[in-house]
Amino acid sequence: MSKDLPQPQQSEEVDLGQLFKLIGNMFDRFFKFIGGIFYKLFLAFVWCVFFIKKHFIKLVIAGVIGIALGMLLEKTSEPVYKSYITVKQNYSTGENLYNAISYYNDLVKQGDILTLENVLDVEDNEAASILDFEIESVISENDKLKEFDAYLKELDTTLAKTVEYKAYLKNAKDYNHKYQQITIKAKERNNFKAVFDKIVENINSNDYFKSEQTKDIVELKGEKLTLQDALKRSDSLQNTYKRVLEKELDNKKGSEIGITFEGTNDESKTKEFELYKSDLELRQRIVEIDREIADKEDIIEVISSKQDSGSIDNRKELFALSVSPEIFYGLVIAALTFLVLIGLSFIKFLEKYKNEI
Predict the structure, then answer these.
(1) What is the pLDDT of residues 237-265, one digit of tens each?
(2) How far is CA 243 from CA 68, 217, 257, in A?
(3) What is the DSSP string of 294-309?
(4) 105 and 98 Cβ atoms separated by less than 8 Å
C-alpha cells in the first residue's frame, strides 16, 4: 500500500499543470483579442486618413459651396428676431411654466393664431409673427454643486452617503431650478414685453399658487408679530435689569461690582450681554422674515429682460453649439459629401465580390 501513496500527488501535479496552462492560454487569447481590436482600429484610422487625403479637394470644394450657400441664404432669407426674459421662481412653478410654453409652441406649430391671440392677449399681426417659444434653466456648475450639497443636508446621513452627484444630476429636472430664461423668436421686430408680461401673469394668477402664497404670507406675518412682541418684552426686561444694576451701584456707593452667573467651560457671560445677544437674534430674524415676505409677493418675477424690439438671431444649432449660417452649411455639406464618397467606395468594394454570389 505504501507504494501506491505517491500516485495521487502525481495526479494532482498533472491537474494543476493543466489548469495553469489553460489559464495561460485564456489570457493569451484575451490579449490577442484586445490587440486585434486596437490593430483594426489603427487600420481604420489609417484608411480614413488616406481616404480624406485622396478626396481632400472635393471636401474643400463642398465646404466652400456650403459657406457660399450660407452667405446667400443669410442675405436673401427673412431675418429672425429674438427677445428674452429671465424669471425667478419663488414657488415650484417650473412644471407648470414648462407646460405653458409647450402649449404656446403647439399653437404656433398648428397655426392657431386666434387661440394664441386670446391666450397671450396680443394683436393679430404680433401673434402671426411668432415662430417659436423656448425655455431653459439658467444655472452654473457651481450652483448645481450648491444645490446638491443642500439636497444632501436634507437627507439622513446614511442615505446621503449612497447618493452620487452624477445620479443626482440625472434625476434633477431643469424646471426645478430657480432661474429660467424664456425666449421668443419672431419674423418681425416687435416689442414682446406685453407677451412676456402675460406669460408671467398667467402663472401668478394660478389658483393653487395664489393659495399657497396667501398661506405663506399669513404664516410669516404671524411669526413676525410674535417676534416683535418678544422683542418688546426683551427691551422691557433690559430696562428693568439696568434699573436693578443702577440701584445696586448706588447701594455699594461706587464700589466695583461684577454681576455674573456660572457658565460652562469656565466661560462666564453677563446677563446683560445675553439679553443683548437675544435682542440681536430677534431683530435679525425679523429682517429675514421681511425679505421672505417680499420674495413671496410674486409667485414668479422678472429679474432681467431684453424686450425692446428684439435682436436679429440667424444662428444655427449644430451639436448643441450655436454657429453662423456660413459655418453651419459649410460643415453640413462637407459632411454629406464625405458620407456620399464613403458610400461610393463601399459600393465599389462590394462589386469585387459580385461574381462570387
Answers:
(1) 767 766 766 676 666 655 544 444 444 44
(2) 90, 39, 15
(3) HHHT-SEEEEEEEEEE
(4) no
The span from the CA of 234 to the CA of 247, in Å, is 20
Which positions ≥6 away from 18 have C-beta within 8 Å? none
What's the half-sphere exposure (Cβ side, CA atoms, 13 Å) at 176? Answer: 11
* Nine-digit cell string for 28: 493569451
Cell of 100: 405653458
Q: Which cell goes with 272? A: 446683560
Residues 180-212 pLDDT 10s: 999 999 888 877 888 898 999 999 999 999 999
CB 82 within 8 A of CB 185: yes
Q: Which residue has the cell 437627507?
A: 155
Instruction: Retrieve residue 226's grid coordinates.
Output: 410674535
Q: In what order do the strands lie in the sheet with 179-186?
A: 130-137, 179-186, 81-89, 300-312
Rounded to whole angstroms, the Cα distance separating 206 from 71 reads 46
Q: Give burial (CB, 10 Å; 0-12/13-18/19+) of 9.
A: exposed
CA atoms in the 13 A half-sphere facing the CB of 343:
6
